[in-house]
């Protein structure tokens, strides 16, 4: 049983026992979301043919495993909340950690939330528009509606949000199993024409490989989530790396088998024009029960969106506590004990990403910034081998693995820019470093006039939202704590 007490400006976990199986389920549950249902088209588009497409899906799984092993060393060496934030703080100092929190809270978390809700909306709307693509306005309205519902669920109750997450995690495993089993049956029946001569017509540019990896790695995103609960993990020195070694390869096998299943019934050209690949697969294989595919895919993406929202407040909470974000983001609801200011802030930003953008542009925008920080985090492994030799390292990965992740991250960041320079990459870079404009006057100097301005704003928001600093929010008996 997980028990969270709102005390001392942090969420202190008491009597928390997250074992190996729970750790594996967390990795698998957060990784399998919307990516495997929307990324196959883009990976195939940029890879050029079936063979390179399957190789890229496999390589993405290997790369995610190696990256997660670097995080295993960091997570068992620095047992603090906030994901990459404390690692970057320890290795590179306050400025880099601030730029990470600034970019993640303002861009990465809300854009990820927006991508998943757009995917949910697309799969929900597709059955009502047979033979054609649903109107964009319908997709975006559904995405906004689902976003508001998810934010409301997470603001209302931690327990309710956890129940929703458990239900939809089971649903996503069901649909993955259905697709994989159907693919195995079709392969046994000799449906291999699309898999023969798999490398014919392959033609990949320097930048296209990077874009193919962007979209493939988006489906694997979530491999670093176990680092957010290192303190709650039973025997983390053993279970953290073991959960990674078991969980991520398991997802890799599922993803490769799902893609093979797609190619047993869809030609590459048919897959590229399909508005919803899994739905098209279900229409051809499972009729008259094909309706279960969009239903369970929608369940899967809704659950992934709920998980994204569920974790979005943690970094904002830590950043607010450290003074890198406004303090109100680290406050919690007086009545419901949820980090509602951070959740609502994340939801509002996500709305702005939903309205103007499509899924593919959001994935490219998201991956560009995300892999820049993944690379810096892997680099912190190397840096602290020399600068923090005294730190105990229960898990110690070969330094060549960290170096490989740094090199691959540099490639994933630079290759698409060199091959096809687009303004979105420039905007992203300007935004990341634009945070320095705010860092010096408001974080480093902390002028009195800024505090005088923020004090009444914070007070009125507290009264309006009924939120308080965590140390002032102690539940009274019999609701002494929040459990899920």
Automatic annotation (TrEMBL):
It comes from Oryzias sinensis (Chinese medaka). Pfam families: AA_permease_2. Belongs to the amino acid-polyamine-organocation (APC) superfamily. It is a multi-pass membrane protein. It catalyses: L-histidine(out) + L-arginine(in) = L-histidine(in) + L-arginine(out); L-leucine(out) + L-arginine(in) = L-leucine(in) + L-arginine(out); L-cystine(out) + L-arginine(in) = L-cystine(in) + L-arginine(out); L-lysine(out) + L-arginine(in) = L-lysine(in) + L-arginine(out). This is b(0,+)-type amino acid transporter 1. The chain crosses the membrane at residues 20-39, 54-74, 95-117, 137-158, 170-189, 201-220, 240-265, 291-317, 337-356, 368-387, 399-418, 424-445. Keywords: Cell membrane, Disulfide bond, Membrane, Phosphoprotein, Transmembrane, Transmembrane helix, Transport. It comes from the Eukaryota. It is found in: Apical cell membrane. GO terms for cellular component: apical plasma membrane.
């Amino acid at each position: 049983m997980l028990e969270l007490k709102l005390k001392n400006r942090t969420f202190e976990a008491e009597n928390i026992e997250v074992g190996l199986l729970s750790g594996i389920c967390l990795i698998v549950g957060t990784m399998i979301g919307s990516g495997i249902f929307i990324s196959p088209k883009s990976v195939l588009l940029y890879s050029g043919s079936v063979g390179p497409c399957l190789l890229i899906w496999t390589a993405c799984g290997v790369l995610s495993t190696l990256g997660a092993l670097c995080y295993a060393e960091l997570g068992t060496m620095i047992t603090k909340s906030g994901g990459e934030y404390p690692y970057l703080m320890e290795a590179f100092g306050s400025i880099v950690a601030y730029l990470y929190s600034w970019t993640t809270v303002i861009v990465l978390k809300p854009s990820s939330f927006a991508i998943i809700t757009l995917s949910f909306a697309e799969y929900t709307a597709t059955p009502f528009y047979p033979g054609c693509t649903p109107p964009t306005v319908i997709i975006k309205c559904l995405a906004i509606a689902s976003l508001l519902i998810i934010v409301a669920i997470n603001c209302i109750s931690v327990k309710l949000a956890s129940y929703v997450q458990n239900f939809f995690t089971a649903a996503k495993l069901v649909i993955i199993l259905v697709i994989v089993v159907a693919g195995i049956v079709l392969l046994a029946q000799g449906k291999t024409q699309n898999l023969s001569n798999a490398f014919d017509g392959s033609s990949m540019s320097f930048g296209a490989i990077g874009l193919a990896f962007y979209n493939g790695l988006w489906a694997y995103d979530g491999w670093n989530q176990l680092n957010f609960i290192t303190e709650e993990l039973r025997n983390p020195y053993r279970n953290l790396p073991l959960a990674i070694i078991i969980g991520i390869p398991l997802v890799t096998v599922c993803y490769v088998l799902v893609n093979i299943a797609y190619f047993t019934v869809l030609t590459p050209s048919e897959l590229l024009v399909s508005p919803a690949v899994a739905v098209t697969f279900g229409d051809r294989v499972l009729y008259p029960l094909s309706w279960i595919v969009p239903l369970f895919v929608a369940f899967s993406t809704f659950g992934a969106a709920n998980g994204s929202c569920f974790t979005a407040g943690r970094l904002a909470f830590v950043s607010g506590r450290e003074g890198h974000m406004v303090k109100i983001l680290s406050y919690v609801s007086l009545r419901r004990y949820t980090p509602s200011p951070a959740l609502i802030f994340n939801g509002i930003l996500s709305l702005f990403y939903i309205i103007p953008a499509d899924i593919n542009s959001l994935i490219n925008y998201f991956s560009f910034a995300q892999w820049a920080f993944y690379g810096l985090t892997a680099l912190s492994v190397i840096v602290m081998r020399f600068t923090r030799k005294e730190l105990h390292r229960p898990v110690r990965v070969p330094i060549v693995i960290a170096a490989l992740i740094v090199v691959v991250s540099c490639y994933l960041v630079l290759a698409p820019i060199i091959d096809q320079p687009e303004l979105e990459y420039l905007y992203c870079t300007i935004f990341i470093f634009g945070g320095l404009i705010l860092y010096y006057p408001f974080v480093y100097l902390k002028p009195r006039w800024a505090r005088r301005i923020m004090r009444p704003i914070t007070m009125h928001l507290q009264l309006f939202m009924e939120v308080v600093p965590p140390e002032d929010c102690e539940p009274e008996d019999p609701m002494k704590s929040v459990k899920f």
